[in-house]
């Protein structure tokens, strides 16, 4: 291995603001990992597969469309949760949080940038999958879903996927452990709320994930406000992660 | 100038860094030494605001969190493992450069500087420890900063790499930068460091030029080879000097210089076959200075 001259001063570019710098850092980091693209691609392929093999047994195009969306509230949301968890978890696991904290002084900007990137990637994957599902209904189902019911369900599904990713991000930021964060978020999402509703007779509309899932599945009587519990939990979790990152040693 | 003032860090009842103050001059390499667990890494992390504690570390008068362009001001390598194994060397540096507003051309420059240009596209998981150290150094040099803080940069480097690192550090300091380097390799520090900061059990033991540190913590010894070692030893004892037998015909004398020993031997008509002054090493000085501060010691079987 050889050595070049030491001083080759970099051209000085205008200093980006805290959030802009953090966004550039996080985006460059996310796109330089193959996992990001493999995961995103897999989600769309899974939706494509689901659409292709589904027998389209719904009573009509709208029911077929919402049935297709149900894959996203289970599988896609879980994968995007993992993406959110790994966004923070990998930084703590591989100690890359140190160069990140040294480069970006604002810890709040770090959390905000991670949230923006998870939202972008999770949202893009969910939107693509929704498009695949819609196209599947048009081509294979032989009808057009009712926009009055299909659009709210699609919006709720994309929101569910994005908020799941952000919940994973918040959990990893608070716990600083990818394994613990993924386990807690997945168990909460897939089992804990159902158990609480069954055994404690709690209204499902007050359970963050279940409430939004009802909205995404076009359940009878579901209202837009059912998105609020998960939104509030996610925002509080991210605020907690930002506070923790600013206060605790890295 | 890096000015460290009264840095203190406590973990519960344990004081890891206890009121440590020192300065790192520009244009010289300052070695940061201490036994295992002495608090070197914690001190460096405190300096960079990665840990909360008391005291202040100023880089040209400003603490790290106040720096407008931190990567352009302070280059730090605290942990060579701090890179995602699935990311390429180029990807890792480009990420840091993107956050610091540094053009991609500079990434290629620093990769060439540390000798990693041929493996820039390889994932970090396939890197040896020495290659990871070079990547860490490249990250620290990315912003061409006037202040450098490097924690054990020689770990895992092969002999050629250690020599390269020595030249690199010398070159960086010759450009007028402040270079603070911690290391366990005392021989390497002796060859590289102009100044030393030595801590033990979290407390400052010394902060002075390397030569002064060695002189202050060791005593020069005169080695005499003579067939009449017993006679000369008796004469030296009588004159108030300690003379130890190192071999059947070899004495080591502490406190006296070689001219005096030579005169005494001539006066006593003792033939001298060899006479020289043995200068002490940094290792001797370090061990003497930190004798009461080493927390972890092994036992030789």
Fold and architecture overview:
The complex is a heterodimer of chains A (250) and B (301). With 250 residues, chain A is mainly α. Chain A contains 9 helices and no strands. Chain A starts with 17 loop residues before the first helix and ends with a helix. The model of chain B has no long low-confidence stretch (mean pLDDT 91). Chain B has helices at 40-47, 70-73, 89-100, 104-113, 129-141, 159-174, 186-192, 210-217, 229-238, 258-267, 282-289; strands at residues 2-11, 14-24, 29-33, 54-59, 62-63, 74-77, 147-151, 178-182, 195-200, 203-209, 221-225, 242-247, 250-254, 274-278. Chain B folds into 2 domains: 2-207, P-loop containing nucleotide triphosphate hydrolases (Rossmann fold); 219-279, ACT-like. Chain A, domain 2 (Alpha-Beta Plaits), CATH 3.30.70.1150. Chain B is α/β, with parallel strands linked by helices and 301 residues long. Chain B contains 11 helices and 14 strands. Chains A and B meet through helix 1 and helix 4 of A and helix 2, helix 3, helix 4, helix 5 and helix 6 of B.
Q: What is the N-to-C succession of helices and strands of chain B? A: EEEHEEHEHHHEHEHEEHEHEEHEH
In terms of structural class, how would the helical and strand content of chain A be classed? mainly alpha
Q: Could you tell me which chain pair has the largest interface and how many residues each side has?
A: A-B, 42 and 59 residues
- What is the count of DSSP helices of chain B, taking H or I runs of 4+ residues? 11
**Briefly, what CATH class of the largest domain in chain B?**
Alpha Beta
Largest sheet of chain B: 6 strands, mixed
In total, the number of strands of chain B is 14
How many angstroms does the end-to-end distance of chain A come to? Answer: 33 Å
Query: Mean pLDDT of chain A, rounded to whole units?
Result: 88
Beta-strand share of residues of chain B: 25-35%
H/E element order of chain A:
HHHHHHHHH
Radius of gyration of chain A: 20 Å
* Proportion in helices of chain B: 25-40%
What is the CA-atom radius of gyration of chain B, in angstroms? 24 Å
Q: Please state the second-level CATH architecture of the largest domain in chain B.
A: 3-Layer(aba) Sandwich
Note the main sheet of chain A: none
| Count of all domains of chain B | 2
Q: Pairing-aware structural class of the strands and helices of chain B? A: alpha/beta
Global geometry of chain B? elongated
- Stretches of chain B where pLDDT is under 50 for at least 5 consecutive residues are none
């Amino acid at each position: 291995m050889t050595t070049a001259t030491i001083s080759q001063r970099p051209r000085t570019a205008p200093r980006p603001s805290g959030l802009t710098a953090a966004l550039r850092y996080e985006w460059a980091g996310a796109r330089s990992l193959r996992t990001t693209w493999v995961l995103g691609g897999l989600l769309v392929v899974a939706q494509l597969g689901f659409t292709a093999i589904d027998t389209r047994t719904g009573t009509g195009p709208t029911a077929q469309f919402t049935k297709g969306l149900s894959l996203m509230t289970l599988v896609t949301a879980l994968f995007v949760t993992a993406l959110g968890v790994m966004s923070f978890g990998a930084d703590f696991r591989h100690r890359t949080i140190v160069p990140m904290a040294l480069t970006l002084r604002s810890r709040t900007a770090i959390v905000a940038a991670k949230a923006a990137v998870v939202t972008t990637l999770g949202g893009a994957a969910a939107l693509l999958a929704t498009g695949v599902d819609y196209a599947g209904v048009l081509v294979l189902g032989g009808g057009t879903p009712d926009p009055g019911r299909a659009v709210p369900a699609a919006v709720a599904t994309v929101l569910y996927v994005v908020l799941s990713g952000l919940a994973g991000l918040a959990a990893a930021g608070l716990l600083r452990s990818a394994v613990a964060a993924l386990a807690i978020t997945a168990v909460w999402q897939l089992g804990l709320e159902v158990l609480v509703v069954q055994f404690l007779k709690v209204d499902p509309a007050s359970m963050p994930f279940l409430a939004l899932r009802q909205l995404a599945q076009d359940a009878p009587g579901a209202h837009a406000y059912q998105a609020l519990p998960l939104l509030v939990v996610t925002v509080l979790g991210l605020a907690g992660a930002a506070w923790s990152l600013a206060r605790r040693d890295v | 100038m890096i000015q460290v003032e009264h840095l203190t860090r406590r973990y519960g009842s344990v004081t890891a860094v206890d009121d440590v103050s020192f300065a790192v001059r520009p244009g010289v390499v300052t070695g940061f030494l201490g036994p295992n667990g002495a608090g070197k890494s914690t001190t460096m992390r405190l300096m960079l605001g990665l840990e909360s504690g008391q005291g202040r570390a100023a880089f040209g008068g400003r603490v790290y969190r106040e720096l407008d362009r931190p990567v352009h001001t302070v280059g730090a390598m605290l942990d060579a493992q701090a890179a995602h194994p699935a990311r390429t060397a180029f990807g890792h540096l480009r990420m840091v450069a993107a956050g610091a507003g540094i053009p991609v051309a500079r990434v290629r420059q620093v990769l060439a500087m540390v000798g990693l240009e041929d493996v820039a596209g390889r994932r970090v998981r396939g890197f040896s420890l020495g290659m990871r150290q070079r990547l860490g150094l490249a990250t620290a040099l990315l912003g061409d900063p006037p202040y450098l803080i490097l924690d054990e940069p020689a770990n895992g480097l092969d002999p050629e790499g250690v020599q390269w690192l020595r030249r690199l550090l010398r070159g960086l300091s010759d450009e007028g930068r402040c270079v603070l380097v911690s290391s366990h390799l005392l021989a390497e520090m002796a060859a590289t460091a102009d100044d030393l900061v030595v801590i033990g059990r979290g407390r400052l033991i010394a902060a002075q030029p390397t030569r002064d540190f060695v002189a202050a913590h060791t005593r020069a010894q005169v080695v005499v080879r003579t067939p009449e070692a017993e006679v000369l030893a008796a004469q030296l004892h009588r004159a108030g000097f300690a003379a130890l037998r190192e071999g059947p015909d070899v004495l080591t004398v502490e406190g006296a210089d070689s001219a005096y020993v030579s005169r005494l031997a001539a006066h006593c008509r003792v033939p001298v076959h060899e006479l020289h002054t043995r200068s002490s090493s940094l290792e001797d000085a370090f061990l003497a200075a930190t004798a009461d501060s080493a927390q972890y010691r092994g036992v030789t079987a």
